[in-house]
Amino acid sequence: MKKILALIMIMLLAVGFTGCTSKAKAADPAVPAQEATTNEAAAPEAAPEATPEATTPSEKLVIKVGTDDAYPPFEYHDEATNDLIGFDIDFAKALAEEMGVEIEYVPTAWDGIFNGVNTGQYDMIISCVSITPDRIEGFGMTNPYLSNGIVIVSAADGEQATSIEQLAGKKVGVQLETTADIAAKKFMADGTDITLSQFDSVMEAFAALKGGSIEYILVDSSVGGFYISNDPDSFNITSDLLSNEPIGVCIAKENTALLDKVNTGIKALQDSGKMTEISQKWFSADFATHIDSEIKVIE
């Protein structure tokens, strides 16, 4: 009788172990790819871990994105919830969904943001990055996803300036290390007598203009339009576009696989009308459909 019971127990244990093995091999689809690989590290058929250089979506579930989180309306924190919101945030979410990856944001001050993508702190920059010849040479820049250029913004009750020449003798603000900052220095080098104030964030520049410590701001057209639409009694765009600097995603130069994936995702969002939808939401205008890709920068 004991032998029979022992045989029965052995059979039951064998069935139990067989069930556990099957469950381990069939990974839960809701579990991220990295976790599934870790749990199955002992299984012979487990895929090898991605190398540090591997940053394409097929090899890496989470894409790290560097962003200047104080640059409305592109990326900034909601005052009520502190959630990160903005045009670029909605774009990044749509892009991640199209690519089948997740996004992890790495808030970064603008004056050091490009160094972070080169050192691997994050995989790409989505932060109203103007496409310029220097950036094309030094980084992997995607195809443009938004029209953009530099404009002059003045106080609504101040003297209007429609050209760079009219800024002579005036106090002008820019955000540090932006294309507007580069343009202002170029104007000064060419003989326009500007008193230049550089700010760490565009929000500080607009606060200074509203407070009267500066008279004008050189800034991205979409940013200027956003501030004016939200506070028309304080600000006014007084010039046409001084440059043409469409916006793209910035990626490390050698990461061509990720660059190709992002370009494919951008095109899909443009073809589906999603980019137009996001543009209308944040700018009440379509800056995402007819993009002039001929770059005209001031440097």
Reported by name, the CATH topology of the domain at 62-147 and 254-283 is D-Maltodextrin-Binding Protein, domain 2
Which strand-content bin applies to the residues? Answer: 15-25%
For the largest beta-sheet, the strand count, sense and barrel status come to:
5 strands, mixed
Please give the CATH class of the domain at 62-147 and 254-283: Alpha Beta
Overall geometry comes to: globular
Could you estimate the helical fraction of the residues in percent?
A: 25-40%
CATH superfamily of the domain at 62-147 and 254-283: Periplasmic binding protein-like II
- Helix-strand sequence: HHEEEHEHEHEEEHEHEHEEHH
Distance between the termini: 94 Å
Number of helices: 10
What strand line-up does the widest sheet have? 4-1-5-12-6
Mean pLDDT: 84
Walk me through this protein's architecture.
It contains 10 helices and 12 strands. It has 299 residues and is of the alpha/beta class. Among the domains are: 62-147 and 254-283, D-Maltodextrin-Binding Protein, domain 2; 150-237, D-Maltodextrin-Binding Protein, domain 2 (3-Layer(aba) Sandwich), CATH 3.40.190. Helix 3 packs across helix 9 and helix 3 (87-99) packs antiparallel against helix 10 (274-283).
How do you describe this structure in short?
The chain has 299 residues and is α/β, with parallel strands linked by helices. Helix content is 38%, strand content 18%.
Using brief descriptors, characterize the structure shown.
single chain; 299 residues; alpha/beta; D-Maltodextrin-Binding Protein, domain 2; five-stranded mixed sheet; 10 helices; 12 strands; 38% helix; 18% strand; globular; disordered N terminus
